[in-house]
Amino acid sequence: MPILLEDLDLRKAERLMCQQALSRGGSIVEAARLLGITRHALKRRMIKHRIEWPASGAISAPEARDHRVTMPVTAESR
Hints:
By secondary structure, this protein is an all-alpha fold. 49% of the residues lie in helices and 0% in strands. It contains four helices and no strands. α1 crosses α2 (28-35) and α2 (28-35) packs across α3 (39-48). The model has no long low-confidence stretch (mean pLDDT 83).
């Protein structure tokens, strides 16, 4: 399925691609494989774009809940 971009904003495109890969792949490891990057590189991008995984409101297995990526609270993010 092609990804349609509203504009040429690279930051938005990267965020959208990460979200699409996570949805399609179902896991961080599989999403990273789809994107052709390491899982660590994907996790860095998830932090950069503040992408929660599993997505908020999603029902996840108990073992999957232990692998959520969250943003640390800093003075800059308030």
